[in-house]
Amino acid sequence: MEGNFFQIKGDIPDIAPDVVFSIGSWPISNTALQIVLLLVLSISFCALVIRRFSVEKPGKFQIAIEGLYESMVTFTEQLSGSRQKANEILPIILSLFVFVGVANLINIIPGLTSITWDGIAIFRTPTSDFNTTLGMALAMIIFIQATALTRLGVWRYLGQFIKIKPLIDGFHQGFSQGMTALIEFGIGFLDIVSELAKILSLSLRLFGNIYAGEVLLVMIFGALAFVLPSLWMTLSLFFGIIQAIVFGALCAAYYASSVPDAKVIPK
Amino acid sequence: MEAEAARYIAKGLIALAMLGTAVGEGYIVGKAMEAIGRNPETTNNIFPKMIIGVAMAESTAIYAMVLFFVV
């Protein structure tokens, strides 16, 4: 920490999170601690606040929470296209909205990142750690593909990617249809790659936005420590909310595009 | 040329990726606004699709940012 009156020089945060302590050989990083804090906060919020909501006499706070919930539900319905699909995926998508949103915004509470243990801050924004976002994206894509697998059955699921049957049918119809089917066959393999790319782009988008925001904040503090950082912090609050919406929205859209309706598929 | 100098030139070139992403996102949002202006009742229908489109266009910039840190 050095610099003159107008500039506050700080350290640019590492990409890897700091390990606060370890249980046996299992390292506990500061992002993991903050995830635990978030879980405790959200569970106690549900247990202590939501329980007291009443149907007869709704308070102002209850109306605000219910309005937020309603808007998230209609948003998910618009994304997934149908009411039924929205109902299937609603719990997981709303959890993603709330978790990513609160995780992006909670470090705006002053002093939370100043709590240290052996010189290491014990709380750090979970989404600025690539492990968190990769874990979430991986879990979501595996969940979506597993649901598609159970709905379609093994052979039809594999048939989405390895299109042998359309290839044979195409060559039975004629040469030009056969060549088109051959191209489709190649595109089927590209779909496997695109599923892997979905994991990477989903996780890197969230991580990149939040981490770049933190790095830029340190740089702006180094350039001019008055007024300018507050503008950037306002902007990063906005980005935090937008990224939470985008993460949930993309998961809902991927679900709607890869998983067929439960009714349409004959058993 | 020293390796460090080449690295800085590469980082500068990677920053040019912002150009394409900005054009793409501006086009998407502009077209969405145009559509909403023509038919304001479709706002609720267009807005989520616009968000998804912008997020897709943004992923190229995210790839560039990852390259920026890797180089």
Automatic annotation (TrEMBL), chain A:
UniProt keyword annotations, A-Z: ATP synthesis, Cell membrane, CF(0), Hydrogen ion transport, Ion transport, Membrane, Transmembrane, Transmembrane helix, Transport
Organism field? Candidatus Harrisonbacteria bacterium CG10_big_fil_rev_8_21_14_0_10_49_15
Kindly list the GO CC terms recorded for this protein: plasma membrane; proton-transporting ATP synthase complex
**So where does this one cross the membrane?**
31-50, 89-113, 133-154, 206-228, 235-257
Which PROSITE patterns has this protein been placed in? ATPASE_A (PS00449)
Which Gene Ontology terms describe the biological processes this protein takes part in?
proton motive force-driven plasma membrane ATP synthesis
- The protein's role, per its UniProt record: Key component of the proton channel; it plays a direct role in the translocation of protons across the membrane.
Name where it's found: Cell membrane; Membrane
Q: How does it sit in the membrane?
A: Multi-pass membrane protein
Q: Which InterPro entries match?
A: ATP_syn_F0_a_bact/chloroplast, ATP_synth_F0_asu, ATP_synth_F0_asu_AS, F0_ATP_A_sf
Family label: Belongs to the ATPase A chain family.
Upper classification of the organism: Bacteria, Candidatus Harrisoniibacteriota
Q: Which domain of life is it from?
A: Bacteria
Give the molecular function GO annotations.
proton-transporting ATP synthase activity, rotational mechanism
Q: Which residues form the signal peptide?
A: none
Q: What is this protein called?
A: ATP synthase subunit a
From TrEMBL, chain B:
Transmembrane region(s):
12-30, 50-70
Q: Which residues form the V-ATPase proteolipid subunit C-like domain?
A: 12-70
Kindly list the places in or outside the cell where this protein is found, as annotated in its UniProt entry: Cell membrane; Membrane
Q: Where is this site: Reversibly protonated during proton transport?
A: 58
Which keywords belong to this entry? ATP synthesis, Cell membrane, CF(0), Hydrogen ion transport, Ion transport, Lipid-binding, Membrane, Transmembrane, Transmembrane helix, Transport
Where is this protein chiefly located?
A: membrane
* Cross-referenced InterPro entries: ATP_synth_csu_bac/chlpt, ATP_synth_F0_csu, ATP_synth_F0_csu_DDCD_BS, ATP_synth_F0_csu_sf, ATPase_proteolipid_c-like_dom, F/V-ATP_Csub_sf
List the Pfam families hit by this protein, alphabetically.
Answer: ATP-synt_C
Protein role: Key component of the F(0) channel; it plays a direct role in translocation across the membrane. A homomeric c-ring of between 10-14 subunits forms the central stalk rotor element with the F(1) delta and epsilon subunits. F(1)F(0) ATP synthase produces ATP from ADP in the presence of a proton or sodium gradient. F-type ATPases consist of two structural domains, F(1) containing the extramembraneous catalytic core and F(0) containing the membrane proton channel, linked together by a central stalk and a peripheral stalk. During catalysis, ATP synthesis in the catalytic domain of F(1) is coupled via a rotary mechanism of the central stalk subunits to proton translocation.
Its family remark reads: Belongs to the ATPase C chain family.
Under what name is this protein listed? ATP synthase subunit c
Identify the species of origin.
Candidatus Harrisonbacteria bacterium CG10_big_fil_rev_8_21_14_0_10_49_15
Which gene name does the record give? atpE
